[in-house]
């Protein structure tokens, strides 16, 4: 903040606090506020997880990544019939087997696939798909049915069931951390948990420093109203400030063992690697890569995004390996939907349904999983999914995060042999 800026008033109500955090302070990521938040504060009720527990890194491909040009059915004549200009030439595809290959921008991921460190789950979606960005993102992040509306996210419910406990917690160690411009719906929970947010990329140090100064000016104010709301909020801001200083100290001193590309997405992954290397007990990290809403001129835009994704994830994996942390971390991508199989008149693709996702790590059972989509479709007809995304979540919960998936997902979904 500018030294000439007026001293901000300390918030004394829930409304004022939410307005304050909405101004761009990306520091606190409250899982959820409820009327009983004064009684049941996670800052006093969540134990510190053991530092060697498995960690999940979620990578959101925001906008709806085109699956057919990510995992390419290069021997299917229907693919080229539906995509006369966007179809990728078979000689350019990075072949996985005799029928499928990766986009030519995914060379780094292709190497990891050959090394057995990348699982590609094909044709992932859900019944009665929704093609709205907002609603389909909500479905994926809350793990709901298409006609079901949930107030908590699947990671929030994981925290509720696996990360809650008795008193004596260290309030300054987040169980979930996101590097994004807002709190992911995935993190919304019924109980309060110490979660934390950072602005994406490496180029926001000035803004993060301004936010830190803003918090300091709030918590140092004398004579704030003496009531339960003000007391709780002030203590919470102080806890956030302690966490912010700790995190920034870690990130400032981290020496990556691998070279990262010079972009905001890779910088965010580098920061996650630094926090993992510092021994933070955080169980889930979240980072987002946007720009996948490719309604027009898709070819170059998606190629650039997939290069960013592939090179960033490969650098992250190598960094973890060189720090001997790779056995502790699994990374998973997701996107709210795929694109239509047929290209549109603007040489792009419109909102669709199913698409592949990636699961990356040294403990992953690499290769292709699931069933490829059928492409004997009419123009503007959508794919029919073959793997429910909640099966992927169930697998990660049951076999990686050691949390019974039915407690989180509210039902039983078949496990996949990916971890």
Ordered list of secondary-structure elements with their pairings:
Blueprint: H1 14-21, E1 55-62, E2 71-72, H2 77-82, E3 94-95, E4 101-102, H3 107-114, E5 118-125, H4 133-142, H5 154-162, E6 176-179, E7 195-198, H6 205-219, H7 228-253, H8 264-277, E8 284-290, H9 298-322, E9 329-334, E10 355-360, E11 367-369, E12 387-388, H10 389-399, H11 405-409
Parallel strand pairs: 1-8, 1-9, 5-11, 5-12, 6-7, 6-8
Antiparallel strand pairs: 2-4, 3-4, 5-10, 9-10
Helix pairs in contact: 3-9, 6-7, 8-9
Q: What CATH architecture do you see?
A: 3-Layer(aba) Sandwich
Count of discrete domains: 1
Low-confidence stretches: 21-49, 166-170
Structural class: alpha/beta
- Give the DSSP E fraction (strand runs of 2 or more residues): 5-15%
Rg to the nearest angstrom? 22 Å
Q: Name the average pLDDT.
A: 85
Number of strands: 12
CATH top level is: Alpha Beta
Helical content, roughly?
Answer: 25-40%
Number of helices: 11
Order of helices and strands: HEEHEEHEHHEEHHHEHEEEEHH
Question: What is the CATH fold-level name?
Answer: Alkaline Phosphatase, subunit A
**Largest sheet report:** 9 strands, mixed
Give the distance, in angstroms, between the N- and C-terminal Cα atoms.
46 Å
- Which word captures the global form? globular
Structure description:
The chain is built from eleven helices and twelve strands. With 419 residues, the chain is α/β, with parallel strands linked by helices. The strands form two sheets. Strands 1, 5, 6, 7, 8, 9, 10, 11 and 12 form a nine-stranded mixed β-sheet that branches. It has a three-stranded antiparallel β-sheet with strand order 2-4-3, with no helix packed on it. α3 crosses α9 and α8 packs parallel to α9. The chain is globular and about 65 Å long.
